Each structure stands twice: as C-alpha cells, then as structure tokens.
Amino acid sequence: MIQFRLNGEAVSVDAHPMARLLSVLRRDLRLTGTKEGCGEGECGACSVVVDGKVVNSCLIPMSQIDGTEVLTIEGSGHANIQDHFLAEGGTQCGICTPGMIMATRAFLEDAEATGAAIDEDSVRAALAGNLCRCTGYGKIVAAVLAAARTEGDA
Amino acid sequence: MRHVGNRVARPEGPAKVEGRAVYVDDIPRAKDEWVGGTLRSPVAHGKLRCIERGDFDFSRVVVVTAEDIPGDNVQALIVDDQPILCADTVRHVEEPIALVAAPDQGTLCAALDALEPRIDPLEPVFDAERSQDVQSEISIDKGDVDATFEGATRIVEGEYHTDSQEQLYIETQGMIADPPTADGTITVRGSLQCPHYVQKALRRAFAVPPEKARVVQCETGGGFGGKEDYPSVVACHAALLAHASGHRVRMVYDRNEDLLATPKRHPSRVRHRTVVADDGTLLAMDIDVLLDGGAYTTLSPVVLSRGVIHAAGAYRCDNIRIRGRVVGTNHVPYGAFRGFGAPQVCFAIERQMDRIAASLGIHPVVIRQRNMLRLGDRTATSQLLKESVGSEEVLRRILAHTGFDRHEWRKERSGNKRRGVGLSFFYHGAGFTGSGEEMLKGKVTVELDDDGCALVRAGSTEIGQGKNAMFTAIAADALGAEPDAITIVDPDTAAVPDSGPTVASRTCMIVGGCLDKACRTLADRVGGDPNTPFRERASAFVRGGGDAVATETYGSPPGLQWDQNAYRGDAYPVFGWAADVAEVEVDLTTFDVEIVRFVTCVDVGHAIQPQIVEGQIEGGTLQSIGWSHIEVMTAENGRFRQDRLATCIIPTSLDTPPIDVLLVEEPFSNGPFGAKGVGELPMDGGAPAIASAIEDAIGVHVTHVPATPERLLEAWLEAHPDDAFFEAKR
Ligand code: FES
Ligand code: FES
User: Which of B386, B481, B625, B669 has its CA 20 to 30 A from that of B296?
Assistant: First the structure.
C-alpha cells in the first residue's frame, strides 16, 4: 500500500511501486483532469504538484509518492488562477490547461515563498515545460501575470 | 450588437480549467470494455502474402482483417483508393494490416507481437519529382503568358521548398466504439472535427444507412486539420473491433503511433518564373506547384486546389499560368493541416517577391504596394474583388506600427549576432473552394423550448477555436436574447444536422451565417415588444403553440460564378487579408534563429469575439513561426524520423516572442455581422516573414523551410565559399 495525501485527503492505493503516478490518478483514482500528451516528460499535460514542486506525473513512479502531498487540478486552491485563464483567453482546446494551471500554481507559490520576480520572462521560463499548440502562449502568460496580481485577494 | 464584439464566456470553459471536460480517454472504462490495437506494415511498399500467427492463444482476443469488413473495404473520402485494412498491396509504412481487440493492454501487446505480416517488398517511390502517379492536376490560365515572356527583358526565377509539418494536437487520436445494438446501430465517440465525415466512413464500412451509424464528438484536444480525415480511420477500426468482439472497444493512440501513422502537411516544391517591368510591376507569372500526396489520395486534390488558387499570392497580374500536381509516393498519406496548401505556396510567392525586389534594388514594401490586389482588381482565377478587401489597410497599419518601410532591408550587417526584419503580405480564401459550399448545403437548426431558451443544433465542432462562444454571441444578438438563454448542443449525428465539416475557416462565416439567419427567422416569428426580455416573449410564443423550430440551409450569395473545368471565377465567397512583420536575431556561430518580435495585422471582416479571434491568430501564427525554423518533420525510407515528442519539436513558451495582433475590420456583407473566416489565414505568413528577416540579417536567400541551422550554414557557405572558419566547422 502506498500512502500519500491527495488534494488534502489521506489516500492509500494498492499500486505497483513502478506504476506511473499519472496512470494511478487517471485509472485507479478516476481523476482524469490530469492529461497524457506524450508519456515521456516532454509536454507537461500531466503536470501535478508534489510537495510544492511541479512534476510530470507520467515520469513519477508510485514508489516516490509514498508519504508525499500531491495536488491535482481537482483539488482546491487554484480558483483564482482558473478564473484568470478564463478571463484572459488562456484556454482554447483545454487539453494543456490543467497542466498549465498546476505549473502556474507551483510557480506562484514558489515566488511568494522566495520573493522571486514575477514578470513576463520568469513566467515564460516557468511554463517552458508545458506545451500548448493552440494559444501561442501570450494569453496564458497574461493569465498568469493577472493571477499573480490578484493572488491573495481571492 | 451587444454580445457580438464583446466578450462572451466560453460555455465549455469552466469545465476545461477545472479538469472536468471529458475528452475521449476520460470516459470511464466500462466493465467489459476491451482495448484495440493496430498491426501495421513495417515496409513502405510490398505484396502482403499472409499474416502469420505465432505462439499465442488467439482465443483470448479478436483479430480483424480485411475480409471481416461487413461493407466495403474502403476508407470513404474523395477517391476510393484507400482500404480500411490492407488486403493486397502495402503502400506505406505503418499501413494498417489487421486489428486486435483484447481484454487488457498486456494481452493486446502480446497478441500484436505474435502477429507477423509477411510482405514481399516492392520498389518504393519517395521522390515526388520522379513519381508517375498523378493524384490530381490543376491548371489556371489567365491572359497570354507566352507572349509576355517572349518580349521580356527581365525574368526572375526561383525555386522554393517546404517540408512537412506535424499538427501536434496535444490530445492524440482516439475513439471508443460500442458493439451494434439489437437494431444494428453502431455508435462511436471520440476526438474529431467532422462527425458527418466519420459517419460517412462508417456507413460505407458497415453498409448501413446514416441513422445506424451514430457519431458523437467528445471534448477535442486540438485538431488543426489533423482530426479532419484521420478520425474516420480510427473510428472504422474501433467499430470493426466492437462489432467482431461484442465489447465496447477503446482505441487511443500513444504519441509514437500518432506521429508515425497519421497524415501531416504536404511537402512542396514551387517554381516561379516572373516577368517584371523595371518599376517592379508584375507582367507575367509562370508557376509550377508540386505536392507529395503520399500513398493514398485522401484530401490531396482539395489541398492542391487551394494551393494552386493561392499560388500567385495577393497580387495583381494580367498574365498568369499555374500548373499544379499532387503525386502519389510511398510516404504516409499527407493530409489536412491548417492552411491546406496555402502556406506552401504563400512561402514561395513571398520569397519570390523579395527576390524580385532584391533584383531591382527596391524595397520589399514597394514591390508589394505596386502589385497588391485592391478593391476592383481580379485575382488569378479572374475573380472580381467586389467588397471586404483589407489589403491596403493591413499593410498601412502594419507599417505604421513597425516602421518597416523605413528599414534598410538587406543592408550589410556585421557582428556575430545579426538582426534582421522581414515582411509578408498574403490573403486566404474563406470557406470551401468554388461551388463547394453550394454542394455541401450546410444546415443549422434552432429550436425554442417552453422556457424561451434556444437550442442551437449544428454539426460544427468545438476544437478550441471558440465555436461555442462565437455561436452563442451570434445567436444572442440575432434573437435579441441573453447568452444564458442559448444552449449549443454538443455534436452528435443523432441530434444535429450536417453543417458541413469544421474546416476551411468556414465555421463562423458559413455556419455562423446560417445560425444568424435561423435566429432572425425565429425572432421575427416570436415578435412582441423588444423591451420585454426575449425569454419571456419566446416562452409565451412556444406555449401558445408557435412554430418553434427554424432550419437554415446555406445558399451562396447571388452572383457567385465558378467554372470548375477552367478553374475560373469566384474561387471563394471572400478573402481574409494579412501582413506580418518579423524581427529575428541570427547567431553566426550556431546559426540559431531567435524571433525577437512578431507583429501581424489581419482583416477579419468583423471580430465576433475579439479575444477568441486574437487567440486564433496568435496560435496560428506560432504554428507558422514553428514551421519556419524549428519544426522539422522528415521521412527516411518512408518512415517519419520524428517519432516522439523528444524529437518532434514545437515551440515552447521560451521559443515564442510576444506576438502583437492588429485587427482590421472590412465587413463582408454576406457574413454574420460582417465576419469572414480567420482560422487558417495566420498560418500562411509567418514562415516567409521570418525567412525574409533571416535574409535581411545574414544576406542569404532562404528558399527552404524549416530554415534549420544546418540549412542556414549550407546557404551561408554557398554565399561565402572562402569563409575558412565555417569551412572548418563543416
Ligand atoms: S504526458 Fe507527461 S509530460 Fe507529456
Ligand atoms: S489550449 Fe489547446 S493545447 Fe493549449
């Protein structure tokens, strides 16, 4: 049994230690908000936050998840980011969006903790692991910057 | 207009940002659901002798081959040359040979491994220039080209090449098929652009009438043309397995299979010979277009058609000859990708215009101003441009914004990192070519319910482009209702009419136009005091027994004429116009190209949803930027080399410059609220603008995209044969 906290709740799953976190989330736990675009760590559609860091869940074996805190798109605490993605036009087909939002969340929380700058360049760097084929990224970057400005107000 | 022109929320947006949107692979697995897979050819050309069965208990799975197909073994599209499963001759690598369904993935893989196709190899053809197999040929003739060449003093010649490109929707292809019900109805649901295309393919494969082949679109994670024709293949495969096994069957490609087996942009070679006057006026254009169609015809004749019509660019010339050919090879069939033949020819003509400008020593802007099509001019097909011609305005606006007309293009530059700026100017026909729309007769139905809410039934799909919000805005304003009174019914062939495919920049202009008319019909019927909310009035009307359903069928605007044999006349109802300016920095050590800045100015007629229109333009432009220098897609012995996302590269947020979008609105009288198509246009101009900027930066004439570092080094060495430093690096 692998035990961890998922979106704030304790869970234990009977998974093979080498099973991918992505598959366990999608198939065993029926949390299909996390997407698969490549299965090899290139697209970021499968991004989730593990212990405050954004990771590609397609590359993470369950053995590494034991005892961690996992956040997915189904969890709470990213409504502000989601609102700005909608307001700024940061989602089109939407398949990259959950991953983008989780990467954004990790980035904004990290910046808040470290006081790192949040600007166009740092946002682009933070999202470099998340591919989007629809938007051209501009409206996603705008959404993240807008979310950063209002973070805490929500 | 209260909602048209102002932001309406995407109806499906909240589900997308919250991860609740249901894409095909998010559908929960049914208890007795099976998984399907495809046995594919390892070779590009050969005779299929047999499929050997190795050491495996095949009673655990179901295997389907060509002879198990209940209807015709034909992938129904334009020409009946492509089988659903190969029965005899293999024509491309990864061609489907057999299908397997199994209770689980492990069993499926074991079964596929135990099947061995025996193929006697035949000589493949990979070079389009050498192919004898002409899939389609089109000519355009205007004026007297030969006579103009005879007396010519100045002829500029150029040859241009573009490589293939992968659509790279982030959601791969996928379908789920249910076994036939007691009355023989087959249902498939999946990721797709054109439900009625899929229905047509299933009808043929199963020999059933339309009502027995039901197709439901799931939320779709991008298409860009890649989900125009290929979903029919996956749907037929999944449905055949469901039919044979009696189980629900899920087929979702992994990225590797998707990259190797599905159609991509047609590679092209375009030759230009142009007679020009000393002041740069185009006197005659002789253009030869060659596309590699790959192993089967698929949509290639239509891609060629758009390519040929756009080959002379957005320019005026009295004497034009265009010869276009798409030929068969043993490559994986090439297919639809945003732009549909136009990006290839746009690259060629825009590079040719720069070449002409350079040969005359005049500015790239001047050559375009001198020759651009304006209101009242005639195109290559002799189409008279009667209205909604934003050509002058897009150029004026982009020059005012960028000052490119004052930039000294191709001035000798120094240093190891060299900056350059380039321009492209282009147009794109909106909607189907020629009499296409007339033949399609797309339909939209709007229905009022007891509560006075409107249900919009259309076969158009939401693939991220914003159809739902755009239709909501059109319906709301045409009815005089609020957006919350509008429901866009999800595409399901059992619930929506055939509005024609979601392709060709036609959803807003053509289908949106029908929606507008249907809603106005209903608004007239409902009548009443406009100060009373529409829902109240509509509810009373419906409860009072009023006729609550309006169906609108597309009819071409009066006066459009198209001669399909001569390729002459009104090729499109209207054109979108655009200009791009790119600024690049080329590193002379690595020949890496960085895009510093990108500006695009687009005439969209009228922006129904400005934010969504900008999103389309930014996304399409980035695909063009990617194709210009980053996105390499090449085949070796007919097999795509870029078979994973680690090697099939598209731009990330870091590769992407800020893209400034300027909108021009020259309304089109026959589009809804003046709107015309915008989906494909942004794909056309990025690559030539960047090639032009690279030429400005380092002085080499880029004639082949993508302009990879290897190609640029090659071109640099050709221009600087005694550059010892680079010679040593070679
Ligand atoms: S699916 Fe994990 S990075 Fe693409
Ligand atoms: S919105 Fe479609 S991939 Fe990002």
Answer: B625
What integer pLDDT is reported at residue B207 of this predicted model? Answer: 98
Query: In B246-341, which residue ranges form alpha helices assigned H by DSSP?
Result: 255-261, 300-310
Q: Are B680 and B342 in contact (CB under 8 A)?
A: yes
Q: Which residues of B are catalytic?
A: 680
Tell me, what's the pLDDT at A151?
Answer: 79
pLDDT at A90 over 80: yes
What is the position in ligand 2's atom list of the atom closest to the CA of A90? Answer: 1
Scan residues 339-398 of B and list those with Cβ closer than 8 Å to A.
Answer: none
The residue among B575, B332, B612 whose CA lies nearest residue A93 is B612
Label residue A154 by pLDDT band (50, 70, 90).
very low
Whose CA is closest to atom 4 on ligand 2? A132
3-state secondary structure of B486: strand
Distance between Cα A12 and ligand 2 center (Å): 32
Q: Which long-range contacts (CB under 8 A, 24 or more apart) does A8-12 make?
A: A8/A75, A8/A76
For residue B16, list chain A residues with Cβ-Cβ distance below 8 A: 91, 94, 97
Quote the minimal CA–CA distance from A70 to chain B in Å.
Answer: 16
Task: Give the residue from chain A lying closest to B613, CA to CA.
Answer: A89
Domains and CATH numbers, chain B: 13-20+436-553 (3.30.365.10), 32-124+168-261 (3.30.365.10), 342-429+573-729 (3.30.365.10)
Would you call B370 exposed, middle or buried from its count of C-beta atoms within 10 A (0-12, 13-18, 19+)?
Answer: middle
DSSP characters over B513-528 = HHHHHHHHHHHHHH-S
Q: CA angle, corner B331, sides to B233 and B296, nearest 5?
A: 50
- The confidence score (pLDDT) of residue A153 equals 55
Residues on chain B touching A49 (C-beta within 8 angstroms): none
Say whether B170 and A74 touch across the interface (CB within 8 A): no
Closest CA to A140 of A100, A83, A106, A95: A100
Number of Cβ pairs < 8 A linking chain A and chain B: 157
Structural tokens at position B58: 């095949």
pLDDT on residue B724 = 63
Ligand nearest to the CA of B464: 2
Q: How far apart are CA B562 and CA B231, in angstroms?
A: 31
Q: Which residue has the tokens 């199963």?
A: B206
**Cβ-Cβ contacts under 8 Å, A100 against chain B:** none
Question: Nearest bound ligand to CA A134?
Answer: 2
* Bridge partner residues of B486 (DSSP): B454
Total Cβ atoms within 10 A of residue B725 = 9
Alpha helix (H) residue ranges in chain A: 21-23, 79-88, 97-114, 120-126, 138-150
**Please, are residues B332 and B369 in contact by the beta-carbon 8 Å criterion?**
no
Q: How confident is the model at residue A152 (pLDDT cuts 50, 70, 90)?
A: low
- Contact at CB, B653 and A140, closer than 8 angstroms: yes
Q: Is the CB of A103 under 6 A from ligand 1?
A: no
Asked if residue B327 lies in contact with residue B126, where contact means CB atoms within 8 angstroms, the answer is no
For chain B (730 residues), the mean pLDDT of every run of 10, in chain order, is 92 98 98 98 98 98 98 95 98 98 98 98 98 98 98 97 98 98 97 98 98 98 98 98 98 98 98 98 98 98 98 98 98 98 98 98 98 98 98 98 98 95 98 89 97 98 98 98 97 97 94 97 96 97 97 90 96 97 97 98 98 98 98 97 97 97 97 96 98 97 97 93 63
pTM (predicted TM-score): 0.97
| Beta-carbon separation of B18 and A33 below 8 A | yes
Separation in Å, CA of A79 to nearest CA in chain B: 9
Question: Do A136 and B172 count as a contact with CB atoms less than 8 A apart?
Answer: no
How far off is chain B from A71, nearest CA to CA, in Å? 13
Give, as one character, the DSSP assignment of residue B58.
Answer: G
Contact of B222 with chain A, judged by CB distance below 8 Å, is answered with: yes
- DSSP, collapsed to helix, strand or coil, labels residue A6 as strand
